[in-house]
Design brief:
Length: 148
Amino acid sequence: MFYFILVFGLVWVFGMLYVIIMGLRSKSWPLTTGKIVSSEVRKQVSRARGNRPNPASYQPYVLYEYSVGGNRMQSEQLAFGGRMQVSEKRAQKIIENYPAGKNIPVYYNPQKHTQSVLIAGNVIGVYIMLAFGFVFIALGVAGIALKW
């Protein structure tokens, strides 16, 4: 069991390190001009456990299009680190920056033009998720050490 926790933590950390590296690289990616196709706040509700209702989280959803080398692409990735799950107020504030029809700068990967972000770098959540991976590693190592 503890070996599984350790391996899970290692895989998690390496996955998050990849995301962090890509986020850092995105700061030096070339820019092109894109256009917001649509933006909205999406409500995410997870299943309740027992009799307690789970609180809803909100996701700023932005669909944008851009062109590189004459090829037109669409993306909904705001930043590296997965989809943001935030309060409704925060999600609303984020999408206010991206109204439909607005021209925006788009950072795109020069090796893979279909990969793009509107916010270069990393969001704080990426580092929090990395910390969770280290917690799993510590639990796995501690569990293995206590068994010996």
